[in-house]
Amino acid sequence: MSRAEYCVVACAEEWRGAGEVLASPMGLIPSLGARLARLTFSPDLLLTDGEALLVGPDGEVEGWLPYRRHLDLVAGGRRHVMMGASQIDRYGNQNISCIGDWERPDRQLLGVRGAPANTVNHPVGYWVPRHSRRVFVERVDMVCGVGHDRAAAGGAGRFHRLGRVVSDLGVFDFATPDRSMRLASLHPGVGVEEVREATGFALAVPEEVPYTREPTAGELRLLREVLDPAGLREREVRG
């Protein structure tokens, strides 16, 4: 099994038990994860083509989802998104807008987009294909997605549901007293010190860190033969 296949399964786990909600995965690995979840342990999950249709795991049309209806799902908390992060800090504050000072940034990125509303209205997770100190930073240059500390300070904690961060090195959650990031599992072949070296802040690490769960034989068959027979997943995650 490849590192990429562990990452797909780790992303799929974000939607375990989600029920009938709209999955909004951003990126190839999260998209494969959402489709795998739909075909296995989350059969009620709704998938979209990103434009105006509800689709099944193989792309067949299942319904109409106009943009206004999509916004209703967002506002009502019935979407579960897995976004990317150009930067993310220990409390889960995420940046996809710019690198450097706001008034004169070194790099212009996507922009804030819908990240603030995503992180105060419905469940959010993150996918980072290249875990490094450039991404896992002490302080993000701009807050787009809201982290645990800012949600609490702004009185938005009631609707703030920040789940897991999946990277090419492991899986991370916020199951600590101060809701700071914790190493939840390591992908096989990765060590704790490797993760610490690649993280720009002090990461909470339990005494015993499990490995990310293996894909089942059925999940591997679906992934390799149905969802991604061309093996595009291997291009996104280093070996």
Automatic annotation (TrEMBL):
Keywords: Transferase
GO molecular function, one term: CoA-transferase activity
Domain of life: Bacteria
Keyword Transferase: yes
Pfam families, alphabetized: CoA_trans
Alphabetized InterPro entries for the sequence: CoA_trans_fam_I, NagB/RpiA_transferase-like
Family membership: Belongs to the 3-oxoacid CoA-transferase subunit B family.
Protein name (record): CoA-transferase
Source organism: Streptomyces globosus
